[in-house]
Amino acid sequence: MSRKIRVATVWTALLVITLAGAVRPGWAASGSRAEPSKCNRVTFQEPPLWISSATWLDNSSQLLVVDPFRNQLVSYDSEGGSQIVPPPRLSSAKDFLPARIAKTEGGFLLEMVDGNLVSLGKQLQVVRENALMQKGLPGEHVGSFYQWTVAGDKIVGFGTLAKTDQDFELGFLRTSLQPAGKVETLKPFGHGDFYLIGYSYLATLGDDVYFVLMDKHPAIYRVSPGSPNVEKLKSFPDEYRVLPDFRSPPPKGPKSAPARFAELETFSMPAGLYAQNGMLYLLTRKPEGPARTAWWLYKIDPRRDVIVGRTKLPTSANHLLVVPTAESWFAIERGRVEENQRQQIRSMVVIPTPAISSLSVPATCSSPGK
After folding, report:
1. Which of 133, 195, 322, 355 could serve as 37's disulfide partner, Cβ 3.0–4.6 Å?
2. pLDDT band at residue 156, thresholds of 50, 70 and 90?
3. How many other CB atoms are found less than 10 A from the CB of residue 236?
4. In sequence order, what are the beta bridge partners of 284?
5. Extents of the domains making up the chain
């Protein structure tokens, strides 16, 4: 890439990591409706300064969070208690600057601020550094990933495909986690605004990857292993089929980020895609009065290509980061983005997974001990 493009790409990556037959919607499929389950609103004992990525630890209900303002990995339990995770021992003498983390079949994949990927075992020990060794190679290669997910030995994400020293294109890419693996362009897409705000629009079900194309008319696409083609699903909530346009200019630094996020709070739009037990879950946001947001979660059966139903999450937070686990779904409540890219992250809602799958999330949550 040219120096100008490279500088822009690095700053954008820093912005991303320092800023996460249809049934009538509102009803579950016949026979699957359950009584509302309990949920808890938990206050963080040591709130994160920012969250650029989050996943969970195996055999526990603990979250694993990347806090880029502290340059740390932090684990949080279901009661809001935290513990600093010792940084993996890297051979590089550089500072530990984590950006994003995701689960893999054998452990985790950790992205650093400079774009390098580190493969970690289940105990967070280093398995392989520079897991994606493509930079500096001749011909086409991945320039940067702005968000990504892992399916088997492949990584699929939205980013830049570097063609020559002076040319690149944006789009959804797939490449092997093996060194010098071939990169494929699955779908060119030059509008990256909505992939740079911290919402996650990729999810994995088995070996298939699904992503939300944040076009003027959004849609969900499926990517199957071994195929270069993407398949568009027909199912999508009608009220979110037209995407608003940003009127504010793209942020050029921390001072301009608050205006961008304030405008985002006025949008009705898709705000995340998740997968669990063969189902997709599309998170949407919609203004609901002054400084309040309605967060709806749509359950989609991708094989039958139908919307099963929807449920409203018990939060009105300005922004939301959702992490599904086997036992619970964690909805981390985030406040407005303020000057110097500060954001209050004081609490999270812990919802039992059965309440999500049965679309029976209660309207309000209690605090522990009440």
Report:
1. 355
2. very high
3. 19
4. 270, 296
5. 3-20+23-357
